[in-house]
Amino acid sequence: MDAxxxxxxxxxxAHAHSPHLQHHFDSLEQQFDSGKLGMWLFLATEVxxxxxxFCAYSVYRANxxxxxxxxxQFLDKFWGAVNTGILIASSLxxxxxxxxxxxxxxxxxxxxxxxTLLGGVGFLCVKYVEYKAKWEHGLLWASQYxxxxxxxxxxxxxxxxxHEDHSEAPDPSAAHAxxxxxxxxxxxxxAVTPTVIMTTSAGVVVERSKILPAAMGPMExxxxxxxxxxxxxxxxxxxxxxxxxxxxxxxxxxxxxxxxLAIAWVLIRxxxxxxxxxxxTPVDLVGLYWHLVDLIWIYLFPLLYLIH
Amino acid sequence: MATQTSTIPAGGLAxxxxxxxxxxxxxxxxxxxxxxxxxxxxxxxxxxxxILGAFFLxxxxxxxxxxxxxxxxxxxxxxxAYNKLFTLHGAVMIFLFIIPGIPAALGNxxxxxxxxxxxxxxxxxxxxxxxxxxxxxxxxxxxxLLGGFDTGxxxxxxxxxxxxxxxxxxxxxxxxxxxxxxxxTGLNFIVTIHKLxxxxxxxxxxxxxxxxxxxxxxxxxxxxxVLGITLLLLIVERALGVGIFDPALGGDPVLxxxxxxxxxxxxxxxxxxxxxxxxxxxxxxxxxxxIFSYQFIAYxxxxxxxxxxxxxxxxxxxxGQSELMNTxxxxxxxxxxxxxxxxxxxxxxTMYKGSIVFKTPQLYALSFLFLFGIGGLTGLFLAxxxxxxxxxxxxxxxxxFHYVMFGGTVIAFLGAxxxxxxxxxxxxxxENWGRVACLLIFIGFNMTFFTxxxxxxxxxxxxxxxxxxxxxxxxxxxxxxxxxxxVGFFVIAGxxxxxxxxxxxxxxxxxxxxxLEWQTSSxxxxxxxxKDPIVGDPYDFSNLKYDPAIGGxxxxxxxxxxx
Lengths: 308, 563
Fold this sequence. Notes:
- The complex is a heterodimer of chains A (about 300) and B (about 575).
- Chain A is an all-alpha fold and about 300 residues long.
- In chain A, about 55% of the residues lie in helices and about 0% in strands.
- Chain A has two domains: about 25-145 and about 240-310, Up-down Bundle (Four Helix Bundle (Hemerythrin (Met), subunit A)); about 165-215, no CATH class.
- In chain A, helix 1 (about 30-65) packs antiparallel against helix 8, helix 3 (about 75-105) runs antiparallel to helix 9 and helix 8 packs antiparallel against helix 9.
- With about 575 residues, chain B is mainly α.
- Chain B has 15 helices and four strands.
- Chain B has helices at about 30-35, 40-70, 80-115, 125-145, 160, 170-195, 210-240, 255-285, 295-310, 325-350, 360-385, 385-390, 395-425, 430-455, 470-500, and strands spanning about 425-430, 505, 545, 550-555.
- In chain B, the strands form two sheets. A two-stranded antiparallel ribbon of chain B has the order 1-2.
- In chain B, helix 8 packs parallel to helix 10 and helix 10 runs antiparallel to helix 11 (about 360-385).
- Chain B starts with about 30 loop residues before the first helix and ends in an 8-residue tail after the last strand.
- At the A-B interface, helix 1 and helix 8 of A face helix 6 and helix 7 of B.
C-alpha cells in the first residue's frame, strides 16, 4: 500500500516504520486510535443525518397518527422481517471478519467478508421486491401517489376488504390525478375537503395554490380520524407516509450500497493479504460502519412496518 | 501525493523565488504538486485562494446591490435580477466564504503547527474537503448558468419548491456538498486535537485559537449533517415532489424552517467562534500581556457551541410558533450573551495595563471589539419578542448580522490574515498601507451598516427591490460606505500582492508570539519543524525579546541571552 507512505516520511522517522504507518503519526497505536475516533465521529454525523428523517417521522406521526395507522398495512411485514434477519446475520459475519483479521485468520476473514457482502446483496434483492410491489400499486411518494390497486396490493397485509371501495381502477388517462381524497370527501361529507389536493393536467406540474386548509395546521383542526378502524375511509395525506417511507428506506438503501462497496474494497485488500494482527484498521472501521447501517434498519423496521 | 516528477513551472509562486532554504512552498514545483498535495499548509493556501475568490464574487454582488439602492427606482437591474443577486450574495458569502474562511484556510495552516504536529490526522480527507469545496463552488456557478436562483440563501419552502428558476437544484446540491467539506474539516480537526498534540501540549496549554477551532469543529460535525438531510429532502422535493416540505403536497413548510435553522443557527457560531479564537491570540500578543482568564475564554467557546444548538427557534418568532416556545427560545437566546460577554470582558481585561502595539492585526482586533459589541448587543433587541415583532425582516436584522458576521468574522479573518501572512508566505507587507486599509474598512463598514439600523427600525423591510422616498438618505449613505469599504479591500489586495513580489523577508517571529508556529521558520518547512519545538505557555511573552537586526523577536533565557 505504497500510497500510504508519505514521501517525507524519511525526513523525520528515526524509528523503524511499519509500511502502514503514515508519516505524521508516531506509532501504529496512535494511528489506529485516530482512525477509530474519526470513524466514530463520522458515525455520529450519519446518525444525525438520519435524525432529520426520524424527526420528520415523529412530527408527522404525532400530528397525524391516522395516516400512519392506515398506511403502514401496505408494507410487507414478512419481507421486512426477512431483511431484518439478513442484516443481523450479516452484522454477525462482519464482527466475525474483524475478529479473524485481529487473530490473523486469512481464510476466515475472506469467507466472512464474502458472507457479509452476500447479506447486503440479499437485503437489496428483498428491497427490490418490495419497491416493485409499491411501484405497481402506485403507493409512491406524494406527487406520484396513485393507489390504483389497493385491494390486490397487500394480500399479505392484515387489511381486509375495506379498501375495495377505492380499488376500482380509475381512468388510466388520469393516471396522475390523486383521486382518493376527492372520493373520500364525496363518500363522507363529514370529512370536509373543500379543495381537491392536486389538480394535475396529465403529467404536468402540480397546481400549488390549492393548499389544504387545516390539513397541516394545528392538530386539533385536522379532521380527527384517530381511532377509526382500519377498514374505514382512507385519511387525507396518506402520501406523506409513503414519502417518508421512501426517503428513509431509500437513504438507508444508499448506505447499504456504500457499505457494500467498502466491504468489497476491504475484501480485495484482504485477498491481497494486506491485513495482519498488527494492521487491521480498515476492516475494523468498515465493520463499525456496517453495524451502524444495520442498526438504522433495526429502528426503521418497527417504526415503519410494525406500527400496530 | 506530492511528487517531484512534475515539470510544469510554478509561475509566480509566492516566496518560492528568493528563499534559499527548502520550505513547503518551494519543496516541489508544478501545479500538479499542489493539486495532489497532502500538506496541510498547501491545502490551507489553496483554500485561501479559493475563498478569496468567493469573497470577491460575493463582495462585488453586494456593491451592485448597494448601487441599485442609490435611488428607490430601478437603476441597474429589474426586480428578478435583484432577487437573484441578493440570493447569490448571501449563498456565496455564507457557504463559500465565511464558513470555511477561518477554519479551513487559516486553521488548516496553523492548527497542526500550533499543536506541534506534522500534519492533520487525515491528510487525504483534508485534500478531499478542498475538492468538495471546489465541486460545491462549481455547482454554484452552474446554477448561475442555468438561470440563477431567487429563493434567498435560506431556501425557504415553498419559494424554493415553486421558484421558476432552474438554478435552485444545483445551488442546493452545491450547499449539500459544501456541507460535507465542512464536516470533514471539522472531523479532521477534532481528531487532530485529540490525538496529535505534541508531548507536553496539554489541553490548557493550547492557544485559545485551537479552543475556538475545536468548538467550531464540534458544531460542524454535529449540526451540518442535519443541513445535509434538509437539503437532500429539498432536492428530492423539487425534483420528484416528495411532499415533506411542500404544502401543495401535504407537507409542512415550517418544518423546513426548523430543520434549516437547526443547522444554520449553530452555523452562525461556526462563523464567529473561530473569529473569537483569533481575537484571543491577537489581543494578547499585541498587548504583550498574558491573556486574562484563559480557562474562562476556553470554556466559553464550548459554551457558545453548546448554547448554539438550542436557540434556533428565534428565527421563527413570526412563523406561527406557540407563545410558550417563543418565550423559551427568547430566554435561551439571551443566554448566548453570557459566554460572549465573558470573552469580550476578558479581552478588555487583557489589554488593561498592557503595552499595546498598534500593528495592523491589532487594529483589526480592536475594530472587532467595537463592531462585535454593537452586533452582539443589537442581537438582544431581536431576541426580545416584543421588539422582534417590529424589527423582524427589516434592515435592522440585516445590519445586526452584518455587524456580527462582517464586523466580527470578516474583520477577525482580516486580522488573522495579516497576523499569519508573514508565516504563510515569508514576506512582510507594508504596515502603513495596512493601517490605512483597516481604517477605510472600519469607516466604510459603519457608514454602510449603521444607517441600516436606523432605516430598519423605521420599517424598511429587507430584500425589497424598491423603497419610498423617506429612506433615500439612509440608502445613499449606506451605498457610499460600501464603496469606501470596497476601496479598502482593493488596497489590501494591492499591498498583499506587492508583498509577495517585493516584500521584505519575514523573520521567524515578527510579532513576538509565543505559540509554536512562531518557533519555526517563515515559511515553515514541509515537516513543520526542523527541531522539536519547546512547548510552554502560549501567552508567556517574558522570554521573547525584540531584535532590531532581524526585525523580529528571539527567545532569550533568564539572563537575557539569546537561546
